[in-house]
Here is the input.
Amino acid sequence: MITPFLIGLVLSLGIALLIELLRLDKKLMGALTLTAITFIYMGFVALQFPEFWVEMIGALTFLMLAYLGLSKKPLLIPLGLFLHGLWDAGHLFWESTSFLPQGYEPFCIGVDIPLAVYFLIQREQ
Here is the structure.
């Protein structure tokens, strides 16, 4: 049986491969990826409080990291992806994560950390 983490890992490899094959702008794709993954949680939390506010603050923080990475300091993009992986891991220890689908955190960690490494390596190219 394939685990959520492995599915996330395969997805991250697919994203990197697509970027390479289509010769997409790596900095732009990194910023878009970081922005997209941060707001996904918002759809799960809906109107649950205080989770809504915690996730909103996190999403806005990662949005700003993506923007600043795109406009000023490209290193902030892989850093943001790595920190988002830690954010995902933090949900494993948060008592009130019933709003997330089962296996969501390991799936996201499987996406975030490999992409952080990919964009860190590729930021110079």
Summary: The helical segments are 4-22, 26-45, 51-71, 76-91, 104-122. The two ends are 37 Å apart (CA to CA). The chain has five helices and no strands.
